[in-house]
Amino acid sequence: MKAAIIRKFGSPDVFEITDVLIPKPNKNQLLVRVFASGINPIDWKQRKGNHRFILGSPFPIILGYDVCAEVVEIGLNISKFKTGDIVFGVLNNKYGGALAEYALGTEECFALAPRNIRFDQAAAFPMVSITVLQALRDKANLKEGQTILINGASGGVGHIAIQMAKIFRAKVIAVSSNRNQSFVESFEPNQFIDYTKTDLLKLKDKVDVFFDVAGTYSFLKCKHLLNDGGVYINTLPRLKILVHKLFQIFSRGKKVKTLLMKHSNSDLEQISSWISQGKLRVEIDETFNLNNISAAHDYAQKGHNKGKNVVIIN
Ligand SMILES: NC(=O)c1ccc[n+]([C@@H]2O[C@H](COP(=O)([O-])OP(=O)(O)OC[C@H]3O[C@@H](n4cnc5c(N)ncnc54)[C@H](OP(=O)(O)O)[C@@H]3O)[C@@H](O)[C@H]2O)c1
């Protein structure tokens, strides 16, 4: 099968398009034929070698987690899916493996893809949507009428967060640069703030949830912006957060939380249902083919996309 592999960590130029063997599913895995893969920051961070101390360097590596794909073979223990099913999901192999014509994942990775959207759109949804759902529901416990500020509202996670917070009937303050203002406003947040003109730390009104998608703040810097009992969440697990947790003690019930997405096909089913009802849409910024994977990573790692970037594979 055709795959984009890396034989060393480094710049976007390290990709090589080559033929490799189609992987064999074990009894708990599905083999899927990949139509498209959404790019996430974790992909280019791993290409640079950021996770090599945790995940090792098992070269040649096939990167990429998000897929929309067709099930072509199932292991003995698979009961939720059958061959021919069109699924979307987040692969759970060490470095993913989505940038190839075929890939493996366990049942937990997938749900049936919504039928009312294209395959490239389905491939763009999984990681960012599960992340947002787990952040708003499990970490923030976001309630109707509460106010959430989303810092980094124009990117993959951010533009889904605006929409999902509205599904939770929260009031949304969306923060991005003015370059992306009209894009962000198309999702109808209650308020828009341009971070190039406004210092968030000087805002007068307090919020219940500060979702720091861009990771440019910290609990210590912005806890004065939280209502009593409010939550600061980021998506960048760091040791520093442990120190900040100590300051929760003096913070009138305010909490600092960090989120690491967990695979969950029931969460994907919930997301699929919202997509089918027209409550969630994904915006594709740029589309690339597998031969242009270096250009795709180069663009994505600039970190100023509107929504998602997708690689078409089959
Ligand atoms: N822990 C997890 O499980 C998990 C899961 C998914 C994602 N993440 C992490 O979440 C982060 C965001 O992911 P993503 O997919 O949304 O990335 P992305 O699509 O690359 O979006 C980044 C966004 O950040 C905004 N931004 C850049 N600098 C900013 C600043 N100074 N202030 C406010 N916004 C700024 C950009 O908007 P402008 O162009 O307007 O500046 C851009 O739209 C990444 O670090 C990713 O690794 C973690």
Task: Give a summary of the structure in a few sentences.
The protein is an alpha/beta fold and 314 residues long.
Structural summary, described in words:
The chain is α/β, with parallel strands linked by helices and 314 residues long. The N and C termini lie close together (11 Å). It folds into two domains: 2-125 and 282-312, Medium-chain alcohol dehydrogenases, catalytic domain (Quinone Oxidoreductase, Chain A, domain 1, Alpha-Beta Complex); 128-258, Rossmann fold. The mean pLDDT is 96. The chain is 25% helix and 28% strand. Strand 1 and strand 2 (15-19) form a beta hairpin. Strands 3, 4, 5, 6, 7, 14 and 15 form a seven-stranded mixed β-sheet that branches. Helix 4 crosses helix 5. It has helices at 41-47, 52-55, 119-124, 126-139, 156-167, 181-185, 219-222, 240-246, 265-276, 293-300; strands at 2-6, 15-19, 29-39, 66-74, 86-90, 102-106, 110-112, 147-151, 171-176, 191-194, 207-212, 226-234, 255-258, 284-289, 308-312. Residues 40-42, 127-128, 131, 151-152, 154-158, 175-177, 179-180, 195, 213-216, 235-236, 259-261, 303-305 line the site of NADP nicotinamide-adenine-dinucleotide phosphate.
